[in-house]
């Protein structure tokens, strides 16, 4: 669980740093949501 939480936080940091446009931000939010869903199903 701790490892998954760390991985999620790292993904979130990368997503925040990588979104330069509104389209990019939307994709980043979508991928973050998918990561949350996958983590919740585990």
Automatic annotation (TrEMBL):
Keyword Acyltransferase: no
GO CC annotation terms, alphabetical: membrane
Keyword list, A-Z: Cell membrane, Lipoprotein, Membrane, Palmitate, Signal
Pfam families: Entericidin (PF08085)
Superkingdom of source: Bacteria
Membrane recorded as keyword: yes
GO BP: any one term: response to toxic substance
InterPro entries hit by this protein: Entericidin
Coiled coil start-end: none
Family statement drawn from the similarity comment of this UniProt entry: Belongs to the EcnA/EcnB lipoprotein family.
Name listed for the protein in its UniProt record: Entericidin
Natural source organism: Sediminicurvatus halobius
Taxonomic placement: Bacteria, Pseudomonadati, Pseudomonadota, Gammaproteobacteria, Chromatiales
């Amino acid at each position: 669980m701790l490892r998954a939480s760390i991985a999620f936080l790292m993904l979130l940091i990368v997503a925040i740093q990588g979104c330069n446009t509104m389209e990019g931000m939307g994709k980043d939010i979508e991928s973050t949501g998918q990561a949350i869903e996958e983590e919740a199903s585990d």
